[in-house]
Amino acid sequence: xxxxxxxxxxxxxxxxxxxxxxxxxxxxxxxxPVVQQQTVKQQEPVKQQEPVKQEExxxxxxxxxxxxxxKASEAVALETVYFDFDKSDLRQDSRDxxxxxxxxxxxxxxxxxxxxxxxxxERGSDEYNLALGERRAKSVAKYLTTLGVKADRISTISYGxxxxxxxxxxxxxxxxxxxxEFVIVK
Length: 186
What we know:
Layout: H1 2-21, H2 64-75, E1 81-82, H3 92-107, E2 114-119, H4 126-146, E3 154-160, H5 171-177, E4 179-184
Parallel strand pairs: 2-3
Antiparallel strand pairs: 1-4, 2-4
């Protein structure tokens, strides 16, 4: 009885191997890219043509509004705001800097739009740091609106740990990378 059972198992194994080895279609794994064969046609020789002279495009002079906004944004320097490790709440020194920034935004570039970029140090995952950078930027934007800057002038973006201000793996470098920076957009 044992020999009959062993023989049956062996026979089933042989049949299974034969069935598996006789595949008529080519099987492609999901992880492997499927490459389609392309037919290559021989190209005809390229006839040489004389180079065409291109005229330089004429640049219209910038509008007076754009020129004044560009000059104003060049002259305005907004202070960077720094954060504690794993925090998005504003420290007192950050609030003082934001008060100066709000005054500048309201008086010197009253019509300009700004973008607040939230940054993090290198510790933590990409996803976590992007979310933390976004919370930092929104925290700064919310505080600026309480100081009188209109919300429609402010946009936020998070770079997470992708754009460090200082390279390094110590607290001195990390403290400079946990920040919110300002860019005058228009």
